[in-house]
Amino acid sequence: MKHEGEWLLGALGAAGAYLLAIMPERKHRAERMKGIFYAHRGLHDLEAGVPENSMAAFAAAVEKGYGIELDVQLTRDQIPVVFHDFTLKRVCSAEGRVKDYTFEELQQFSIEGTNQRIPEFADVLQLVNGAVPLLIELKCPDLGCEICRLTDQELQGYRGSYTIESFSPMALLWYRRHRPEVPRGQLAMNYQRQEGHYGPERMASRHLLYNFFSKPDFIAYDIRDRKALSKTICRSIFDCPCAAWTVRSAAQLEQVRPYYDCFIFEGFCP
Description:
- By secondary structure, this protein is of the alpha/beta class.
- It has twelve helices and nine strands.
- It is globular.
- The mean pLDDT is 94.
């Protein structure tokens, strides 16, 4: 009986430590996100000449009244630009990484063969001008947080509604320390199953174990793993809003509705 009692206490202690590790922020700053549909990288339609993360895609989302999800990273001359991949290969059919070029140099490349060019984040803010909510993903290729400081500088004079999100818990920690009033979200997925990436840091991220210091206001989780345990506990026990990424059809939307509170979509109009 003594050993059974010790085992039970150990199990309860481990469960308690786990819950403390994944506990999100409890101030409910992200409540306003509930029910919002965010156009993934803008309302893009390549067949119509409107590529992802372009000024045309953002203008289309504003016209339709959809929120906008977009990606921000830094150029070589430290200018925040809106672009998803770290490399130019897929979107621009060019060699090198975004951070290898200055903003002016990047303007030589077209986005997906259209007349659109990689936009400066400041120009996107001017275009949207508070018309629809923004969900801003901070792309962090390393542990540095200069992207947070420089993006925040651009947002200081912005009067529209926005939230930030990142796969990097260090980016969320920066916002927790320096801009605690801005809702911040932890992006996560099952890296092992979906991308074949293993390692303790990937496992911790998948299970939201960094929440204890980054304290996200919401969780943005891959819909392919909508029943993930830690994500489910954050939503059901801690009442933490969850954003779905990425929904690609009306049928898929109906499947994932019970598991999420707001939705990042592409390829159709919900």
